[in-house]
Amino acid sequence: MIQSDLHTHTFFSADGRQDLRVMIERAISLGLRYYGTSEHFDYDYISKKVKIRGEDVRQIDAAAYFDCARAMQNEYSGRISYLIGCEFGYDDSAPIQDMYCKISETYSPDFIVNSVHTCLGKDCYFPEFFAGKSKEYAYSAYLYRVLESLDAPYPYDVVAHIGYCARNAAYADPKLRYADFADIIDAILKKIIEKNKILEVNSSAKTAGSPFIPDTDILQRYFDLGGRKVIFSSDAHDETRIGDKRDIVSDALKKIGFTHVTLPVRGKYIEEEL
């Protein structure tokens, strides 16, 4: 059984719904060995002036987050390996990338998750992103953005939730299938392998047509290409979803041929058996 979950959010993130201590205590009660928070650093919203429901997205107080998290890390040492991470929302502008590099240099997070949330000036979770766009066009734009994000200059460890665009997509069939976008998905997977990054299997799939994203067809292709570094993530925003579907993800990964998940822990990669 997978005993780790590093991609989660607390009140420090704009959309988090729970206190950090409650989240850590829940992770302990579930028997997790490694638990991490990867709070949102949404500087991409600043760059493109992206709004959610007409409002600016609240940005994280980085100093407050790291001060609190480091104190918790010390307090819970010996009970659980609590890791302090960041989720950087990729943007192509040099000033925003410099801001992410500065966060990394200033606070030395234990791990960094690289994510694509914004594309074509919109957050590709919300209905306005899909308005007037075919599924092929919208998903292709998102996937090319993911490919571009892999060359980000900050030292990220994990490539997050490939298929984010399908979570709330306004299509009768929202599923992101490898066969429909084989060339661009191959380019993404090959670059993840080339750069020695970790591919996230995210169990917050919502209406994406699968229990997790990316689905097994993409994970199988990653394995066939030689990719072995995967990580389970619940993307929980409150304590109720920590570790959600880790048994389902574990079984699916084993069927493909994976033997372990890979955890980024302060510059080192640790393998945890499935």
Question: What brief labels describe this structure?
Answer:
274 residues, alpha/beta, 7-stranded parallel beta sheet, two-stranded antiparallel sheet, 13 strands, globular, Pol/histidinol_Pase-like
Strand residue content: 15-25%
Number of continuous helical runs: 9
Oligomer: single chain
Radius of gyration: 17 Å
Largest sheet: 7 strands, parallel
Could you give the order of the helices and strands? EHEHEEHEHEEEHHEHEHEHEE
Shape annotation: globular
Strand order of the main beta sheet, please? Answer: 1-2-5-6-9-10-11
Determine the structural class based on helices, strands and strand pairing: alpha/beta
Helix content: 25-40%
- The low-confidence parts are none
Rounded average pLDDT: 97
EC number: 3.1.3.15
Keywords: Amino-acid biosynthesis, Histidine biosynthesis, Hydrolase
Domain PHP: 5-204
Protein name: Histidinol-phosphatase
